[in-house]
Amino acid sequence: MPSLLFCGPKMAACGIVISIWGVIMLAMLGIFFSAKSAVLIEDVPFTEADIRNDKNPPQNIYGLYNQVGINCFIAAAIYVAVGAVSLCQVRLNKRQEYMVT
């Protein structure tokens, strides 16, 4: 029977720690982008043409803020998936310790 174990216990634990940090950081960034924090204006991808061609400039920028916020939430969900895989690897490594071959 093939094993689903593909990383060691230390790498799996590291994956869990990095995933937890990534979820916290990206979820907070997503919240702040959705709240349209002025501090994060440098991270919003807009050009001068976006402002000049829009009749109501704040709405265009607010839409970009929301898009970046959604991207942060998607990345946080990917980190949750990576954390779940790492957790499964930790459990498989624990089970491997008790198996006699």
Please provide a written account of the structure.
With 101 residues, the chain is an all-alpha fold. 72% of the residues lie in helices and 0% in strands. Helix 1 runs antiparallel to helix 3. The longest helix has 42 residues. The mean pLDDT is 89.
Strand proportion: under 5%
Low-pLDDT ranges: none
Which structural class best describes the helix and strand composition?
A: mainly alpha
- Quaternary structure classification: single chain
How much helix, percentage-wise, in residues?
A: over 70%
| Rg estimate, integer Å | 21 Å
Quick check: average pLDDT? 89
How many angstroms does the end-to-end distance come to?
13 Å
Number of helices: 3
The beta-strand count equals: 0
Q: Tell me, what's the shape?
A: rod-shaped
What order do the SSEs take from the amino end to the carboxyl end, as H and E? Answer: HHH
The largest pleated sheet is described as: none
Question: Which properties best describe this structure?
Answer:
mainly alpha; single chain
What's this entry about, in short?
With 101 residues, the protein is mostly helical. The protein contains three helices and no strands.
Draw up the topology in text.
Layout: H1 9-34, H2 48-52, H3 57-98
